[in-house]
Amino acid sequence: MSEQASDHPGEPDGLERLWTPHRMVYIGGQDKPADASSDECPFCRVPSLSDEDGLVVARGEHAYVVLNLYPYNSGHLLVCPYRHVADYTDLTTDEVVEVAELTRTAMSVVRAVSGPHGFNLGMNQGAVAGAGIAAHLHQHVVPRWAGDANFLPVVGRTKALPQLLSQTRDLFADAWPATPHTTTTTPEDEPC
Questions:
Q1: Considering only 72-76, 84-88, 116-120, which range has the smallest mean pLDDT?
Q2: How far apart are CA 137 and CA 123, in angstroms?
Q3: CATH number of the structural domain spanning residue 33
Q4: Residues forming the active site
Q5: Is residue 184 left, alpha or beta, with left meaning phi > 0 and alpha meaning psi from -120 to 50?
Q6: pTM value > 0.85
Q7: Residue-level pLDDT at 12
Q8: Distance between CA 154 and CA 109 in Å, rounded?
Q9: Residue (of 12, 180, 7, 192) closest to 102 by Cα position
Q10: Does pLDDT of 132 surpass 90?
Q11: How far apart are CA 28 and CA 23, in angstroms?
């Protein structure tokens, strides 16, 4: 049974309501560190869990790939360094290289499994820039499809996801190559 706008005070607007109460956990701050020195960081906790329990898709030496618990789109991945560091400029050279390589491999895997039309990649540096967990750097890898920004997420602020996160994790983990994506050409070999 869906809730009707006419059941509430005020002027009915004729819109159906789609409830996503699971988002209130995130909005309320669960799993977000209180501050940069907090031991409650979810990105520090996840590596200690099994891959299945932590939704970890792949692990490297300096960073790992995990599904976003509150995805913008199906297959939304995060590439996180193991080290608790807030700013991109604080990463070591090895961490920068591995975050970049894991991001490239994540894109290849998502393309092979889900066939997106494009990607949004990015890091929000600091709370004012939109970082939900500003204390621990993480790179977003968001697959995009034509028409995925329809009325549902734009107006309804609701996202319909076609499969459970655990199912998506299993598909990506199974498709992840045994060795990371490597470049077979040098920049000089690539046309401009």
A1: 72-76
A2: 7
A3: 3.30.428.10
A4: 138
A5: alpha
A6: no
A7: 57
A8: 27
A9: 180
A10: no
A11: 8
From residue 156, alpha-carbon distances to 5, 10, 95, 132, 149 in Å are 14, 19, 38, 21, 11
Higher pLDDT, 9 or 147: 147
Residue 190 lies in a domain: no
10 Ramachandran zone, left/alpha/beta (phi>0; psi -120 to 50): left
Domain that holds residue 165: 29-175
Give the pLDDT of residue 38: 47
- Split into its structural domains, the chain has a count of 1
- Structural domain includes residue 63: yes
Residue 17 domain-assigned (yes or no): no
**Tokens at residue 164, please?**
């459970």
Cα-trace Rg, the chain: 19
What is the rounded distance in angstroms from the CA atom of residue 19 to the CA atom of residue 107? Answer: 31
Residue 140 marked ligand-binding: yes
Is 81 part of a structural domain of the chain?
A: yes
Q: 86: Cβ–Cβ under 8 A, 6 or more apart, which residues?
A: 36, 125, 126, 134, 135, 136, 137
Does 124 count as an annotated binding residue?
no
User: To which H or E segment does residue 63 belong?
Assistant: strand 63-67
